[in-house]
UniProtKB/TrEMBL annotation:
A family per Pfam: YibE_F
Region (Disordered): 66-111, 418-451
InterPro entries the record matches: YibE_F
UniProt key word Amino-acid biosynthesis: no
Keyword Cell inner membrane: no
Keyword annotations: Membrane, Transmembrane, Transmembrane helix
Protein's UniProt name: YibE/F family protein
Compositionally biased tracts (Gly residues): 81-110
Signal peptide: none
Organism from which the protein derives: Phytoactinopolyspora halotolerans
Amino acid sequence: MTGAHLHQEATPASPRVRAFVLSVLIPLIMLTIAGLVVLWPSGEAPSIEAGDRVDAEIIDLRPCAAAGGASSQSGDTDSGGAEGSGGTEGGGAGDEEGGGTGDGGGGGQPGTTCLEADVLIESGPDEGLEVVVPVPYGVGAPQFEIGDKVVLTATRDVPLESRYEITEFQRGTPLLWLGIIFAVAVVLLSRWKGLAALVGLGISVLIIVFFLLPALLAGQNPLPVAVVGASAIMIATLYMSHGVSIRTSVALIGTLISLTLTGLLGALFTELSQFTGLFDESLAYIGLVDAELDVRGLLLAGLVVGALGVLDDTTVTQTATVWELAAADPTSSRRKLFASGMRVGREHVAATVNTLVLAYVGASLPLLMLFSVTGMGMTDALTSEQVAQEVVRGLVGSLGIIAAVPVTTGLAALAVRQGDTHRVAGRRRRRGGPSGADRPATAETGPGSGT
């Protein structure tokens, strides 16, 4: 155990508590393993024929060639004026841009300027070759400069000169550095406990990548897949991060109960709200690729998995709070521990619910802005499927948190005091014993004093 577990086993659990915990955990672990075996994906998952992604570096930028420029701009200029005038304007702008990029691409790049780039391919079968690719342009198009690291999409079985196009910037390096900073910060603050938490995070990612996603793509029922995956993540991460103990087991049981309630509420309101999933572009596209997928079930599965992270935070905090309160005041009763833990839990709920709702609102912010621009009323915006899905996720997740606080606090108070109830009562009797014995002694000596 680490220093963070200083008071964790200060009060040994009674045989009754251990029996209860094991009676819940053993079936849970066995059912989870059985679910992983039964639902483990087999066979070939459906796939989409997509272009290969390769890394490249822009080594030069210039205006589109005469033929390429005319062909690429004709579609834009047909509706706005003569093709010749459109080409002249594009050429003039391109010349000006060419002057800007000749010095290293430092000049401005108007969104309507047609450019092409010489890129050096850094991965894939054509690694080391230089090719010319069109640069995305138009309103809102990203601005590229010489030296930018980009990602190209390759269309197979197409001549080299028209095989590649720029898709986006490379982001691997900044994300890697951010991940390293995060890992170092966690370990510096929590030391070995933080390292264990990072290992638990890695296990969660492995479960999602190798079980959850393939099983969903294989057409398995999304709700059982989500429940089994969430249970595996919950068991692995809680014990890895917080150690194998009665306290962690109580937190796990509280999480299980709260997650079950969250899943039931999610299933109910997903059905009552009649979500179709067709307004989510990714879900709609996946549904077209594989008609066997239960799109509504995918929404529910996402709700269950998303709620797990917030729920285990709440349950671990509540069990830790009750254990520390019990260690600080060994004479406190279960009722007092529950009341004190609930006071902490109310503060936690107030902060966490707000965080959860704001997270879902933040994810829908561009959509809310679109509704605002179009003049859609607040009621209409909230009841539209895109926003209503986030509302259901936020409120159902919040109800799960609200349920987790009293459930976990009550379980923790019972567990931490079950083993030492008799000792606490005995301590109180010993404390009251001398005073009770003193009173008869005083009564006996009083008459004998003769005063």
